[in-house]
Amino acid sequence: MKTILAAVLTLAALNATPAIAAESEARKAQNNRMSDCSAQAKAQNLKGEARKEHMSQCLRSPVSQTAAKECRTTASEKGLKGERRKEFVSECIKGKTPSVS
């Protein structure tokens, strides 16, 4: 009976290993991105709201980063500043990135 239980537990552990490994790799990649973004913010001496904005932009997907860059460029071309610029960029990015449902 003990050998059957041991065999079942071993098989269960082996079946779960690929899913755990994939999750571990995804977590490792996210941690690396966090570390890289944090190092960039530190190198630029960013603090408070500026650091928060940098981290947000840095951690976005490449599609979102491209959209954000385009939207910020458009906001600059329109001469938007302050809160109006922030609102414009936010709405612009929402329109350019696919929604997650």
Give the tags.
single chain; mainly alpha; 101 residues; 84% helix
Shape field = elongated
Distance between the termini: 47 Å
Number of distinct helices: 4
Average pLDDT works out at: 80
Largest sheet: none
Annotation, overall tally of beta strands? 0
Oligomeric state of the chains in view: single chain
Radius of gyration: 22 Å
Low-confidence runs of at least 5 consecutive residues: none
By helix and strand content, what is the structural category?
mainly alpha
Order of helices and strands: HHHH
Residue share in helix: over 70%
User: Strand fraction band?
Assistant: under 5%
Compact overview of the structure:
The protein is an all-alpha fold. 84% of the residues lie in helices and 0% in strands.
Explained architecture:
- The N and C termini lie far apart (47 Å).
- It is elongated and about 75 Å long.
- Helices cover 84% and strands 0% of the residues.
- α3 (62-77) packs across α4.
- The longest helix is centred in the N-terminal third of the chain and has 42 residues, at 2-43.
- It has 101 residues and is mostly helical.
Chain-wise SSE layout:
Elements: H1 2-43, H2 48-59, H3 62-77, H4 82-96
